[in-house]
Amino acid sequence: MAEHRSMQRAALLDAARSLLSEGGTEALTFPALAERTGLARSSVYEYFRSRAAVVEELCEVDFPVWAAEVSDAMQRSDTAEAKVEAYVRQQLALVGDRRHRAVVAISASELDAGAREKIRAAHGGLVAMIVEALAELGHAEPRLAAMLLQGVVDAAVRRIELGAAEDSSPITDAAVAMALRGVRG
Q1: Other C-beta atoms within 10 Å of 142: how many?
Q2: For residue 162, with 0-12 CB atoms within 10 Å meaning exposed, 13-18 middle and 19 or more buried, which class applies?
Q3: What does the DSSP 8-state code read for residue 139?
Q4: pLDDT averages per 10-residue partition of the chain, 185 residues
């Protein structure tokens, strides 16, 4: 029975990812989740009490996977500058991944305070990954620099998501160049 519930929960989360990446937060409804999973709408409520609860669980499950991919890319880099480049490039490489599209859709939505706090904490963990590399580069305020660097990444993500270019590599290259010039200063 526990295995069945776990599989159903995973199916609901998978359906939520798809709905978010396809249609944003407006698409994430319990009737849509029920339709995608073949469950009765009332059964969806047995797993999640609200849309915000689905969002919170997606953040708890998906953000660490995404952050681990960024961390792994950074760990394969030899220098602090290479770590900054890997930090930017890996996040932008994940833009097409539906986990990322779901997180972006979630971030853009109107959520309750608990869900917002979980997203902020997850982003804080991502920003914390780069602080050490920025300190190694001699930045006087590495935490501030990390937050500003994430702002560059977030702007590039929005540009890519808007379909500003068919090939996202010029946006990625520009973001990397801006990031590296900025953190050296």
Answers
A1: 19
A2: exposed
A3: -
A4: 87 91 83 94 91 82 87 96 96 78 60 71 83 92 93 89 77 94 74
